């Protein structure tokens, strides 16, 4: 039986701390925010500059949309992926709010860009259970599945370039020709450009981060519960 959101509130507050581009001091303790419905009460519960920032005043999306910026290197992202997104995404879908994921390149080097490209390739070449399992494998190999980024099996393949990723994909059942075609496709090339541009444009400095309607960045330090997070997403998607 699924746990009520109130019961997992403390767990959520602890587990949704992000992986930062640069280490940040822990947030100061604050009184919990009461869960808000996606109505007029949300307008008073959520404050610009506190719970969210406008990172692109001209930002638009084709419909209500939540974008998660994440990293396969990030332990907090793995926790979000494995423990919280299975609850969050269905709640968004029940409100007709779309959800997508984009990889960041905090390292700013070629390996970081190759891993970002690899995730874009994953989106183009896999789906369903195969995609879920391959993502799990990448979290394991790249260290995101382990908080200290060092406790994973050191016999795992090392990822330094796109060729290393290709070997992992092929081992997971992805056709090598399909991988190569996706790697050089216009869709993937554009994703590599756009995702890195958006990382800067939307001021994504830690992951996981959520941007709503390509306009609003949620301040995860102010999120106390999953219910509050989903309500904030719903509120911003309707603004």
Lay out the secondary structure.
Layout lengths: L8 H7 L3 E2 L19 H6 L6 E3 L10 E6 L4 H19 L4 E6 L6 H16 L2 H15 L19 H10 L4 H8 L2 H16 L4 E2 L1 E4 L3 E3 L7 H12 L2
Parallel strand pairs: 3-4
Antiparallel strand pairs: 1-5, 2-7, 3-6, 6-7
Helix pairs in contact: 3-9, 4-6, 4-7, 4-8
Task: Give an overview in words.
This protein is α+β, with helices and mostly antiparallel strands and 239 residues long. The chain has 9 helices and 7 strands; from the N terminus they run H-E-H-E-E-H-E-H-H-H-H-H-E-E-E-H. The chain has helices at residues 9-15, 40-45, 75-93, 110-125, 128-142, 162-171, 176-183, 186-201, 226-237, and strands at 19-20, 52-54, 65-70, 98-103, 206-207, 209-212, 216-218. It has a 5-stranded mixed beta sheet with strand order 2-7-6-3-4, sandwiched between helices. It has a two-stranded antiparallel sheet with strand order 1-5. Helix 4 crosses helix 7. Residues 66-229 form the DSBA-like thioredoxin domain. Keywords: Disulfide bond, Redox-active center, Signal. This is Thiol:disulfide interchange protein DsbA.
CATH class category label: Alpha Beta
Strand adjacency order, main sheet: 2-7-6-3-4
| Average of the residue pLDDT scores | 86
Count of separate structural domains: 1
The percentage of residues in β strands lies in 5-15%
| Unreliably modeled segments | 1-11, 22-39, 148-152
CATH-level-2 architecture: 3-Layer(aba) Sandwich
Structural class: alpha+beta
The main β sheet shows up as: 5 strands, mixed
Rg value? 18 Å
Helix content: 40-55%
Number of helices: 9
